[in-house]
Amino acid sequence: MYQIIPIQARHDADICRIIQQVGAQYGAVGEGFGPADAEVRCMSQHYLTENRSQYLVALLAGQVVGGAGIAPFVHYTEICELKKLFLLPSSQGLGIGKALTQACLTFAIEQGYQQCYLDTLSSMQTAIALYEQLGFKHLKQPLAGTVHSGCDVWMLKAL
Fold first, then answer.
1. Structural domain of residue 74, as residue ranges?
2. The domain that contains 85 carries what CATH number?
3. Sign, CA torsion 32/109/137/85
4. In sequence order, which residues have a C-beta less than 8 Å from that of residue 49 and are 6 or more positions away?
5. Is the distance from CB of 32 to CB of 150 less than 8 angstroms?
6. Are 4 and 100 in contact (CB under 8 A)?
7. Rounded CA gap, 12 and 42, in Å?
8. Calpha distance 119→117 (Å, rounded)
9. pLDDT at residue 101, as a whole number
C-alpha cells in the first residue's frame, strides 16, 4: 500500500533523482524540459501552500517512488499548472499516478484555481491517457508563458 504526503526536505534528493532518471527515459533532458528546472534540486523549498502551490510525494514501503505538484501558472491567477508527475517504473500501474493527480487537482480547487494546465511529451502515452481520463483536453499550442519548449503536448482542464 502506498502513501501520498506533502514533500518534506528529507525527500528532496530522492524526488530529484526520480524526476531526472524517469525524465531521461523519455528524452526529457536539458533545457526546455521539467527535469532541468532549478527547482528540481530542492522541491520542498519551491512548493509552499502560502504560494498556492504544493508538491506531493508517493511512498511505497516508506520509500519515495514518485511525486506531482500544483503551482500557479505564470501571469494567471486563475490557472495553475500540474507539474512534475514522475513515477519510478516499478511503481507504475498501481494507481499512484492517478491518486497523485487527483490529490493535486483537489488542492487546486481548494486554492480557488479555475483551470489546470500541463505540458508533457507525446512519448509519455500512459500519462497522457491518465490526463484524458481525468478530463484534460488537448490544446493546439502551449499557453503563453510556457517555459518547457521541449514539450509537444499541452492540455487544460476546467476545475
1. 2-158
2. 3.40.630.30
3. positive
4. none
5. yes
6. yes
7. 5
8. 7
9. 98
Rounded to 5°, angle at Cα 87 from 32 and 8: 90
Confidence at residue 150, expressed as pLDDT on a 0 to 100 scale: 84
Helix (H) or strand (E) holding 68: strand 63-72
- Tell me what the mean pLDDT of segment 124-144 comes to: 95
Give the C-alpha separation, 80 to 47, whole Å: 13
What cell was used for 50?
502560502
Which whole number is the average pLDDT over 77-94? 94
For the chain, what is the mean pLDDT? 93
Q: How far apart are CA 63 and CA 59, in angstroms?
A: 5
pLDDT digits (tens, 9 = 90+) for 32-83: 788 888 889 999 999 988 899 999 999 999 999 999 999 999 888 999 999 9
**Cell 479555475 -> residue:** 114
Residue type at 138 in one-letter notation: H
How wide is the angle at C-alpha 128 spanned by C-alphas 150 and 119, nearest 5°? 35
How many domains are contained in the chain? Answer: 1
79-87 and 115-120 beta bridge pairing = parallel
Handedness of CA 61, 98, 150, 45 (dihedral sign): negative
